[in-house]
Task: structure prediction
Amino acid sequence: MALGTLDRSLPPFFNQGPSVLSKLVFFGALSLFLMVADARFNMTRPIRAAIATALTPVQWLAVQPVRAVRDASRYFIDLNQAQSESAQAKERLALQSVRAGQVEQLAQENNRLRQLLALKEQLALPVMAAEVLYDAADPYSRKVIIDRGQAHQVDLGSPVLDESGVLGQVTRVHPLVSEVTLVIDRDLAIPVLNVRTGARSVAYGDASVGGSGMELRFMGSNADVQEGDLLTTSGVDGVYPPGLPVARVSRIEHRAESAFSKIYCMPLALTSGARHVIVVKPATADLALRPPPGSPVAPGQRGAVK
Result:
């Protein structure tokens, strides 16, 4: 039998029920009927409600993986955001702390400048404002460097004061800066006056290395000195104006084997952290000069100069 003569139709065994065309026409008409009926009379609403109710658990299960991924991503985003906000808050807190410290420091500096201004008004000698730049590099001396020198007409030996009292004395002058030896330096001595008793003495810097105090030397064991006595400049040296606060007696040691007492004093000036100071012209220029030998003496002064 030739290949082209084969019968391609279905055998009679499978030809049961309506034809394909009949099914198409039937289901097409049924679809049109349901659409018109649903549009006019809402006949399929209960069916849709029942189907939606039945599929709700399936939809919930299908959405859970997506929701879990979304919640996890949101958790990490919120965690990163919270960490970032915490870091920013700590940074702002540190900045506020720094600013608070600066405000307190500025307030203290303003108070010291006001006290310096008041001290400047009390002095009759010319004064000059200066700023402490840094401490001297010599570990065996107590000196600081200020930002005034020969160009600013700073004189050698000028007293240097802060808002609390005598800080030191200018011992070296450079063109733009000057070296100030502090009162606690072992090589500096200041004639002082005990305000309570009126007794004069000399205060020296602490002789120990790194000392931060002063001492009264060659004071007898029976000297009238008490703890808390205020020491001011006596003015007899012609350098320091009289009446400037220098130190206060802090401790007295009486030694049986010695005729002198060991008297320790604490300087009133801020020797370890002064920043703004004033430089005073030496009081030597205000002292009356001693007339040379053989010069005529005024009648009222005869016998005054020996």
Remarks:
- Residues 127-286 form a domain with the Thrombin, subunit H fold (CATH 2.40.10.340).
- Confidence is low (pLDDT under 50) at residues 295-306.
